[in-house]
Amino acid sequence: MEAGTVAKPAPLIIERGKTEQFENLPDNSIALDGYVQGPVFDVERNRFSFDHHDKVNRQITRASCQQVMDAILLGFEPKSSSIYINDIDGDTVLSVWLLRHLEMAKDPKVRMLVESVGSVDAHGPAYQALDPVLAEKFAKAVMRPESDARKNRTYGQVDMNVLLEQCLKNLDDLMAGKLEYVKEEKDRKFEVVKQGIGWVMIESNNFVFDLIYGAGHLRAVAMQKQPDGSIAYTIAKKSELVGAFPVGPMSKEGTLLYELNKIEPGWGGSSTIGGAPRNPDGSRSRLSPEQVFEVIERIVGGK
């Protein structure tokens, strides 16, 4: 299957870790996956935010790539709008690819891929992908440049434009049946370093929330130490249906992300998953595990 005729790429603006208010977006703009918090449409000025992180119910709000696909199927015309992103992940890559290949939104394989990747992105690794094999090929082969950069701790310094184009090229090849993928058997594991009230803090070199949930933990904070001494924290719970762990959003007073953001600006995310700042220099949080643990334990324990 050919990936279709590629439209002339719209201007793409990547600003690492930046978030912007919707009212500050210029005319003819498309903000993706967290650049603007919350899904917002302004048809008169041709401004759109496809987001599922803030001002939403995570249980019922579709991922950005699903929102983009639905919009295209319902007549959305991006034309020459500028695309704004602040991070590169599977949801963003799929969204940009769809905006560059409008005619492919009707393709059954593309729709299967978007539903498989988008549902897991929206609900987390506890959710069963519609096509697990296709979703794994996307995550392990299409997104390999991004995952390797994060694994090697070079993501903070990498040229994000180059990284995005590498992933988009891989996606072209996947849709054309040209992308090779050999399943790798990895020894992924995690260590519980602190036990809170109904939650755990773990350390791992990989994204392991599927293993964390599989081990019976519904609420967790994962930490990865970075080469520059900062720490990448991810705070998550299995779903919106899990109580006693108010992850976010950052804009809501009393949530974990709100309280951590007061101490260290830049924390953000949704009601079920969020994390440490993604600073322009590539660094993450400078808070110690003890500081993060104390904040979360105080809120969860009602202290």
Task: Report on this structure.
- This protein has helices at residues 64-73, 90-100, 108-123, 132-142, 144-151, 160-175, 209-214, 256-263, 289-300, and strands spanning 12-14, 29-32, 40-42, 47-50, 82-85, 191-195, 200-203, 219-225, 231-237, 268-269, 273-275.
- Mean pLDDT is 92; it is low at 1-7.
- The chain folds into 2 domains: 12-175, no CATH class; 191-300, Diaminopimelate Epimerase, Chain A, domain 1 (Roll).
- The chain is of the alpha/beta class and 303 residues long.
- Strand 8 (219-225) and strand 9 form a beta hairpin.
- The strands form 2 sheets. A 6-stranded mixed sheet has the order 6-7-8-9-11-10. Strands 1-5-2-4-3 form a 5-stranded mixed sheet.
- The chain is built from 9 helices and 11 strands.
Number of strands: 11
Q: Strand order of the main beta sheet, please?
A: 6-7-8-9-11-10
Task: Count every helix, treating DSSP H or I runs of 4 or more residues as helices.
Answer: 9
Portion of residues in beta strands equals 15-25%
Summarize the main sheet. 6 strands, mixed
The percentage helix is 25-40%
Q: Give start-end ranges of low-pLDDT stretches.
A: 1-7
Roughly how many Å apart are the termini? 58 Å
Dominant shape: globular
Task: Kindly name the structural category.
Answer: alpha/beta
Q: Kindly provide the radius of gyration, computed on alpha-carbon positions and rounded to a whole number of angstroms.
A: 19 Å
Order of helices and strands: EEEEHEHHHHHEEHEEHEEH
